[in-house]
């Protein structure tokens, strides 16, 4: 593993805050996504690009999947999911929920939506759930979706949200879709969060 080059304290701290400490990890990211990380500016990206080339490594191409919801934070995830529609939908749901994209959330959740958060009363209405997400929205520096699994009407994902202040929030969600169809809406989410 190759250590990061000297890119300045803000950029180094920003990368360390999301667990990136080597050039090999940098080579798994694309420039545009990395530049959203607070503290990583054009100079740091230029230095990283030069160092990557010296080690015969390169930034990833920007995702071809232009349907990825827009966000103002770095999203770490396998972004090219065209052969797995429900996997893509889970990824998009997580990004939409984190960024507070009300329109996308409304289009992804079924009218009979239900959210289960252990030790809390279940939310039995998608509009109440969306309002709660918008009310509890936080300033995010990065969203690291570590895995997404799907099978039939079910799916799951887990990852880490790093706030702009550097706090870590660990999450895991279990999702049920309304049917097995590839464009089925989300009918239920069970959510676990550790702050």
From TrEMBL:
Name used for this protein in its record: DNA-binding protein
Keyword terms of this UniProt record: DNA-binding
- Reading the lineage from the top rank, the first entry is Bacteria
Q: What high-level taxonomic lineage is stated for the organism?
A: Bacteria, Bacillati, Bacillota, Bacilli, Lactobacillales
GO MF annotation: an example:
DNA binding
Gene3D superfamilies xref list: 3.10.450.50, 5' to 3' exonuclease, C-terminal subdomain
Protein's UniProt keywords contain DNA-binding: yes
